[in-house]
Amino acid sequence: MPDTAADLARLLAGIDQTTSDPTRLRERMVPELKRIIEEGRAAAEENLRRHRDGMACARELCGLMDAVIQTIYAAVVKRLYRADNPTAGEQIAVVATGGYGRGTLAPGSDIDLLFLLPYKQTAWGESVVEAILYVLWDLKLKVGHATRSVAECLREGRADMTIRTALLEARFLFGERALFDELAARFDAEVVQGTAAEFVEAKLRERDARVAKSGASRYLVEPNVKDGKGGLRDLNTLFWIAKYTFRVTETEDLVGAGLFTPEELRLFERCEEFLWRVRCHVHFATGRAEERLSFGLQPRIAERLGYAPRGGLTAVERFMKSYFLIAKDVGDLTAIVCAEMEARHTKRPPVLNRWFGRFRERFRAPDLESDDFRLDNGRLGVSREDAFERDPVNLIRLFWLSDRHDLAIHPDASRLATRSLSLIGPLVRVDREANRLFLDLLTSQNAPETVLRHMNETGVLGRFVPDFGRIVAMMQFNMYHHFTVDEHLIRSLGVLAKIESGEAKDEHPLAHRVIGSIRNRRALTVAVFLHDIAKGRKEDHSIAGAAVARKLGPRFGLDAAETATVAWLVEHHLLMSMTAQSRDLSDPKTIETFAGVVQSLERLKLLLVLTIADIKAVGPGVWTAWKATLLRTLYYETEVVLSGGHSEIARTDRVRLIQMRLREQLADWTAEEFDAYAARHYPPYWLKVDAVRQVRNARFMREAVAEGRTVATRCETDASRGITELTVYSPDHPRLLAILTGACAAAGGNIVDAQIFTTADGFVLDTIVLSRAFDQDEDEMRRAARIASAIERALKGEIRIADLVADRHPRKDRPRTFQVAPDLSIDNALSARETVLEISGLDRPGLLYELTTALSRLNLNITSAHVATFGERAVDVFYVTDLTGTKITQPDRQATIRRAVMAVFEGEGAGRRPARKAGE
């Protein structure tokens, strides 16, 4: 282990007492200091791996920096600018502020310094500060610094809450101690006294803004360890509030101040240590001040922390579950501090509806139906400390009352509920009244999402429904899901409530219309609550989830028919989404197969609403108008089959209504012009393309025809969804799909979706959706324009796409963040005319091109292609025939296809001759 103190002492002793040149001083010190810092950080990393103590690591790094800066300071003031008889103006105190002031540093943290002067800057003080900073800058350290007098610090602190917070954590390092003591005393008397309420309000507003910026949920699957909800900054905020309000100096003092119990203090320390451990490992692993736990980092950090696979969860999933449980604990501590601040009148009480809450409490207090509960400043509280011990069902009743009367729950009641979780045992779980209250809450018309989330965060929900407890804080290690499983389920219920209430009727008109005619409303709600309940188990989560539903249904109070419906919905909750996105909806066999599983109109309605709730709750940007149109088409096509040919709106009528709406949007078109245009498209186009895109396509095609162009492209980008759309209008061509995908591959573009249509007069209208490569729209549009130009030139015979792809540098082997086993399904029962190839595997730029070239080399005709991407997992479905137009039934031919497809995923399939493509 390095002897840092001895090394620094030798370095200082070796500096000439008469040194007067700042440049020579830096040349002498910087190389040695770099070595000492590198060795000290390496030792800190080794101790972190060995002892697994994040706080110890943060303090060790802080101590290292203290010693380095003290050596620099001593060299400057005792060698370079020595003042044997200093005047009043030749005094300075070096003070650590911010995180450095707290005595903790991550490997990549900023060094925040305050150079404190007695009254104003002098030439000596300016020279000292400059010399110190130049050495720190030469060491490539990130230094935040300020040079102020005591009076300036107080003035700035009164005016700026960020500076006030930095001064609150000021820590004397070296120099004139009397200056620092004066600042501390006057700061307390002139700034802090009498301003606690102002500070608390400001810090909580600041927290809300920070959390909103980094992600409003603490269950985002790529959390920010420092600034995210439930991260280190939240713990910092709690301590700032306590330090400012109660004048404590150490975390141990929080118990004496009455803010925490000893158990809660231990929880605070456990959260702080874990988060610091993760943060330090992230900085060490990346070599920079990275604060976001990205997917690429998570496996590395899990390995560094010693996690291993267990119980159906991978090592990284177990690590991230631990992380989210810690984030939840930080949330509990935040609620405790807020409640205490409110009790001491330093924070205004939050209520769901402030005006209505006051009106209700003053003029119309609700009947809480139990002496164990009372209103406390407009919120629901317990009237006795033993309310839950006296009747454990009250732990469920608390949240039922909150939803029933639209009451926020008092933090003290939440705190007591968390302490009382052990009261929820087997007898409470099977208690008829407890389950009646829970089912009533679950199916409430009052949008119970907020109450259920609160119930989850206190731990009551997972304790009452142990199967739900298994998925609390569980992440799914993929790019598709944005939230933990429990948060996803609760958000799904929120989407369902919005559909039912009419709040989302404009976005989901069909779902809003059908939900009013659903008979099994309770079954639908319970199915939404349970659809992913079995995630993280070794068996298929849909099958295992159906078994859980059959167990829980009777317990919740559902009858046999409702329970069977819930189990069916959970088992098949992915069916409608997968069929809509990866099957040819114009093929009667697709609809027939889907209808054969669904079997009834009631189930079709239930599955539609469940599917929408599931997709919408995955994360921002996942739900699109494209998916809405596909689901709507699948619903109407299946409705015809299940109703014996009778549908709410017949297919031909739907096409006519869609065309009428488009005609209204194209008011500047003549009737003859519109009729000619409408006749160019087959029914699948009208049923699968959303209204906004239909308008754009119509104007795009009209413009191309008017300009006499047989090949035209259009580019659009959408930053909110992180995609760019490329639309191509061209004569049909047997190699068109290969040309499109090859041009994208040559530009490094990753295709995540596609819509492919042919027209009655032999043209195609294809839309390719690419992942964005640039943050700025201008840069992204330039890339899209290059791809579009390559497509146009290839279709005109000016270039060969195969040459462009071949000219690309080969992909470098790099560690893969995600592992997706490639799979190929060859099915001759899904279509009456074609063989259906369903190919899934790890997505990458150029994958679709490589697949189409591989299929082309086998002389397969692609009649329809359906491209979908679920995060890192690509699912590409091709409807194919041989060159004579027949299905692929021979076993040896199917084996050849399988080998060719698997070779693509093994990196051997690129550069083949492109595939043929026909329209739908």
Walk me through what this model shows.
The protein has 920 residues and is an alpha+beta fold. Among the domains are: 4-193, Beta Polymerase, domain 2 (2-Layer Sandwich), CATH 3.30.460.10; 197-343, Nucleotidyltransferases  domain 2 (Four Helix Bundle (Hemerythrin (Met), subunit A), Up-down Bundle), CATH 1.20.120; 356-437, no CATH class; 710-917, 2-Layer Sandwich (Alpha-Beta Plaits), CATH 3.30.70. Helix 10 packs parallel to helix 14 (315-343) and helix 31 runs antiparallel to helix 32. The longest helix is centred in the first third of the chain and has 30 residues, at 22-51. The radius of gyration is 33 Å and the shape is globular. The model is unreliable at 351-363 and 908-920 (pLDDT under 50). It catalyses: [protein-PII]-uridylyl-L-tyrosine + H2O = [protein-PII]-L-tyrosine + UMP + H(+); [protein-PII]-L-tyrosine + UTP = [protein-PII]-uridylyl-L-tyrosine + diphosphate. InterPro entries: ACT-like_dom_sf, ACT_dom, HD/PDEase_dom, HD_domain, NT_sf, PII_UdlTrfase/GS_AdlTrfase, Polymerase_NTP_transf_dom, UTase/UR. It comes from Methylobacterium isbiliense.
Short overview:
By secondary structure, this protein is an alpha+beta fold.
Fourth-tier CATH superfamily name of one domain: ACT domain
Question: What fraction of the residues are assigned to beta strands by DSSP?
Answer: 5-15%
The name of the CATH topology of one domain is: Alpha-Beta Plaits
Total beta strands: 15
How many angstroms does the end-to-end distance come to?
A: 70 Å
CATH architecture descriptor of one domain: 2-Layer Sandwich
Count of DSSP helices? 41
Mean pLDDT comes to: 87
- What percentage of residues falls in helices of 4 or more residues? 55-70%
Give the biggest beta sheet.
Answer: 9 strands, mixed
Regarding quaternary structure, what we see is single chain
- Label the structural class: alpha+beta
Shape: globular
The radius of gyration computed from the alpha-carbon positions, rounded to a whole number of angstroms, is: 33 Å
Poorly predicted sequence stretches spanning 5 or more consecutive residues:
351-363, 908-920
CATH class category name of one domain: Alpha Beta
Protein name: Bifunctional uridylyltransferase/uridylyl-removing enzyme
Pfam families: ACT, GlnD_UR_UTase, HD, NTP_transf_2
Organism: Methylobacterium isbiliense
Keywords: Hydrolase, Magnesium, Multifunctional enzyme, Nucleotidyltransferase, Repeat, Transferase
